[in-house]
Amino acid sequence: MNASHPLPNAPMRRVSRALRTRRAALESASARRFSAALACLGVSYALAWLELPLAQFTSMPGQSGGAVSSSLAAALTARVIVGVLYTFVALRHAWARWLIVVLCLASVALVSPLLPLEWRNFPLGAAVTSLELAAKLVAAVLLALPLRIRLDTRP
């Protein structure tokens, strides 16, 4: 019995339908695009973790230890939250997919103008950031395309 359902002992049709459609097999082209988008998200996630030690190399020597530890904690927390969001995308939740599309496009739009300055100061960091932004852009474009579910045509 589901106590939160308005009619006790009634099936939760919307939930079961949503679970079935999420688990349904995708058409081959959609499955390839979705797999490629997940691979791009994985690459961008790995590069985001690689940015952490690179940021420590470029930190100011006069910074206090408290400021560095709080910024490191914030960076770690952000990466864990993004990883959880990427997990929801891999489980094919539509809300997570569209949120990632918006976040990836916003990241590309806001960070790419800063790349020339970063390139002058720290070329390795700029290369990692450029690869990460490219992976995010490709993932956003692939995730924005529709995912078509394979229709079973057996009699």
Walk me through this protein's architecture.
With 155 residues, this protein is mostly helical. Helix content is 74%, strand content 0%. The longest helix has 30 residues. It is globular, with a radius of gyration of 21 Å.
Please describe the topology of this protein.
Blueprint: H1 13-23, H2 28-57, H3 65-90, H4 94-111, H5 115-121, H6 123-144
Rg estimate, integer Å: 21 Å
The secondary-structure class comes to mainly alpha
Q: Please give the largest β-sheet.
A: none
Low-confidence runs (pLDDT<50, min 5 residues)? none
> What's the count of strands?
0
Residue share in β-strands:
under 5%
How do the helices and strands follow one another from N- to C-terminus? Answer: HHHHHH
Whole-number mean pLDDT: 82
User: Distance N terminus to C terminus?
Assistant: 35 Å
Tally the helices: 6
Helix content: over 70%
Overall geometry: globular
Summarize this structure as a short list of keywords or feature phrases.
155 residues, mainly alpha, 6 helices, 74% helix, 0% strand, globular
Concise structural overview:
With 155 residues, this protein is mainly alpha-helical. Helices cover 74% and strands 0% of the residues. It is globular, with a radius of gyration of 21 Å.
